[in-house]
Design a protein that fits this description.
It comes from Parasphingorhabdus marina DSM 22363. The protein has 501 residues and is of the alpha+beta class. It has 3 domains: 1-64 and 178-266 and 471-501, D-Maltodextrin-Binding Protein, domain 2, CATH 3.40.190; 66-177, Dipeptide-binding Protein, domain 1 (Alpha-Beta Complex), CATH 3.90.76; 268-467, Dipeptide-binding Protein, Domain 3 (Dipeptide-binding Protein, domain 3, Roll). It is built from 16 helices and 18 strands. The strands form 4 sheets. The chain has a 7-stranded mixed β-sheet with strand order 8-9-10-1-11-18-12, sandwiched between helices. A 5-stranded mixed β-sheet has the order 15-14-16-13-17. Helix 1 (3-21) packs across helix 7.
Amino acid sequence: MTNRNSSRLASFIAPVIAGLLLASCSSSGDEDRARVTVISESGGKVNPIGINLNHVSATARMAVAKGLIGLDEQGRIVPSIAARWIVTDDGLSYIFRLNEARWNDGRQITAERIATLLRERIAELAGSRLGRDLRVIDEIVSMTGRVIEIRLDSPQPNFLQLLAQPELGLFRAGHGAGPMVEISTEPTLVLGPLLQPDEEADDEETDESSVEDDPRRVFLRGESAALAIARFDAGHIDVVLNGKFHHLPLIDASGIDTGNLRLDPVAGLFGLRFVRADGFWAIPDNREILSMAIDRPALLTSFPNVTAWKSRQKIIPEALDVEGINTRPDWATMTMQDRIEFARTMVARWKASDGYIPPLVIGLPDEAGADILFLRVQSDLRRIGLDAKKVGIDRVADVRLIDEIAPYDSPQWFLTQLTCDLTAVCLNDADARIADADAATNLEIKARLYAEAEQMLVNHYNYIPLGTPVRWSIARPDQRGFAVNPRGWHPLNSLVGIPIS
């Protein structure tokens, strides 16, 4: 065993011991209580009021501050503050009728207040991960006491998936509308049901006593992957959320039953995005060599617990393809051996005329799974005459790993991650085509423009697709209210049988 692998194993063993010592006091096997840990790499602080929320804070926000609509445990759109809605035939207007409901301080929810809060929240999110997607909203108006209209600049298929994101849950002066409410925050966040007036007793009991009488509780914390896995293995928590590819070796080391490893069928981007392109890498044809050289199936099978992991050669999922437009790379039908021989020839030709090619600097997380990915890519590059160097994800690099879930199913999201707003290695013509697609009101024209933009970016090779993102949870097969889903969010209220509305 190498020194590096020994240190990785030691870094797992220590949290295992700590996990055994820091057991939660709630009992297992109680359907009214769920102990949940969200893997958090930015610290375990839970703060649902904010803009750029870590995963544990976003999970908490989903529980205590619902939006117009929400997601159920299967990732489906469900009513929340809004009881129902209609979409006009042109796709430019969404009209919502609100439920009769109250904030957690007892005040009535009104359409006028919700419209104001939505406008304010969307303005706050301008610089967030959803900022560009939310620009499609032209106006939000209160039509009557219980009806709100959202008008769009152009039709946006699957707009409701965007509207159901946790960041669009609403607070009024710090008060959410449930479906849960904070009971306590130390040492973990404890959540109970937010009971609406018709659920309470007829006497003059306070809201607090009503909540105390209801036994349903979720205990939520954020912590490292190693400690979360240790707690689950010891039986001290029920559900672990937000596992990523680079945490997978910890599953192997822990011995957790793979039947408890639950993989979400999410869509998104998982690959290498160029952030600097000098010398050899300044030329798109040479960046193409990198994409050709990587043996994607071999890379993904380096992680044996995720047999459903799918490799990718293009940017947008096939489900969103446009008939008649081929967005796969030119080499897609070549065998792996033919790709290697072609790439080796091109590299040798460059070296003969231009000399030495420095190693490709790859920015990756400092985790065991990222080490596996790097060594696989480095090996693929070495067999064609190139090399690679690994640095931290925030260090100066040529390429950085992008590992993001699409918040909604639209070509727009995938393409905008590769525009000049987000990376210096970009293509102005593709940006212009994306802008034309964003503005198009005809859905067929919009889809075709996005497909043309993808063609341009595929040939520009500022992004090297590797596969679909991996998002995993740990939960026993009989865990109440838990299901894998394509959105990658798991509502806490479902775990203890609390309806969203």
